[in-house]
Amino acid sequence: MPVWFHIEESKYFTNAPEHVFDVIKSLRFLPENLLKVIDPVIQRNAFFAHTENLLLSMIVDKRDHIRELGFRIIIRARNITSKRRSVRSFQPPKNKFLDTDDIEMIHWNAITLSPPPS
């Protein structure tokens, strides 16, 4: 099914990482020369697959263990005390393109958690 129909069927913001994952998954069947052009474009424009958006998607997921994982990551970030007083820059994430699920798009062990604004 084309991605557009998935977006029309569920157009909530919390479903955005799933839509990005569907696009990535559907493009894996293209020839290698096209993937060399398309992958950097998706990487530059993957703001909907940002860590915070992916966490929002995780806490409304249908699977219980995914919801629990999302809540644990949020609670861990809330317990971090930040000494930084500057504004955090919003960088597009480094996505993995050969993943099997939308929560695997980000390396959770490699990200730097920061506390939410107070």
Textual characterization of the structure:
47% of the residues lie in helices and 0% in strands. It is mainly α and 118 residues long. The protein has one domain (3-110). Helix 4 (51-59) packs across helix 5 (64-78). The longest helix is centred in the middle third of the chain and has 15 residues, at 64-78. The mean pLDDT is 72.
In short:
With 118 residues, the protein is an all-alpha fold.
Key traits:
mainly alpha, 118 residues
**Could you say which overall geometry the principal axes of the C-alpha atoms support?**
globular
Helical fraction equals: 40-55%
- The secondary-structure element order is HHHHH
Give the total of domains.
1
N-C termini distance? 42 Å
Give the strand tally. 0
The proportion of strand residues reads under 5%
| Structural class label | mainly alpha
**Number of helical stretches of at least 4 residues:** 5
Stretches where pLDDT is under 50 for at least 5 consecutive residues are: none
Overall pLDDT level: 72
Largest sheet: none
Radius of gyration: 15 Å
Task: List strands and helices in order, with pairings.
Layout lengths: L2 H7 L6 H12 L4 H13 L6 H9 L4 H15 L40
Helix pairs in contact: 4-5
